[in-house]
Amino acid sequence: xxxxxxxxxxxxxxxxxxxxxxxxxxxxxxxxxxxxxxxxxxxxxxxxxxxxxxxxxxxxxxxxxxxxxxxxxxxxxxxxxxxxxxxxxxxxxxxxxxxxxxxxxxxxxxxxxxxxxxxxxxxxxxxxxxxxxxxxxxxxxxxxxxxxxxxxxxxxxxxxxxxxxxxxxxxxxxxxxxxxxxxxxxxxxxxxxxxxxxxxxxxxxxxxxxxxxxxxxxxxxxxxxxxxxxxxxxxxxxxxxxxxxxxxxxxxxxxxxxxxxxxxxxxxxxxxxxxxxxxx
Length: 280
Prior knowledge:
Blueprint: H1 8-20, E1 26-32, H2 43-47, E2 52-58, H3 65-77, E3 81-84, H4 96-103, H5 105-113, E4 121-126, H6 133-141, E5 159-162, E6 167-171, H7 183-192, H8 202-216, H9 220-225, H10 233-243, H11 255-267
Parallel strand pairs: 1-2, 1-4, 2-3, 4-6
Antiparallel strand pairs: 5-6
Helix pairs in contact: 8-10, 8-11, 10-11
């Protein structure tokens, strides 16, 4: 499978972010805790150089806790502030404002010495599509400020959100990058729904997920679907279709429906807490 998705609005969004970065004190980058490296846009490091940086391991409730801790340590060892969060349920959100102040302590002190006492910290919230930026902003603000949706490409333009007198956030659209040098990165992004399902072969994608789970989490599929694992992922997909009664006319198995079901169950944590990549 070959993965690529870079619609025109992403080019515009990147240009907008470049124009606004001079207004920003802190770059808050959300990554998906299940694939923290693959869900980092490499362009963000260039965009955010010379700025304070905070990495949020979002959807941490969907990833294994031991790997969440390992990834938090990985980012901290590289000079980032790092926090595990679960934006949908509010996990880790209460600590964020103090983390923002800590990350910008040098800037706040510089302002104080220059007699600037009340200027808020301005943070740009960035990340790939469907990583949960708008959900995070709404959880942090305690109200629905940003439009959300369980698919990529919901946020199309920028939006300033004033949290309080101390912090202002700039919500930005999710952007990928023009070319994936490593197609395994594209595969992982497709697994979590950051690439539009409409442009990928769902059954092939489900087969790749089955291969991964068979190697690293062999009990996940049998426990959920009461079907056995097999070296051939398409045999397993047939088993999932049979166990969930995904049947077409003529008693034919509806493997496309079963593939969508498997991907949805994975994305929403119904297969258990799963991490798809690990720190070096």
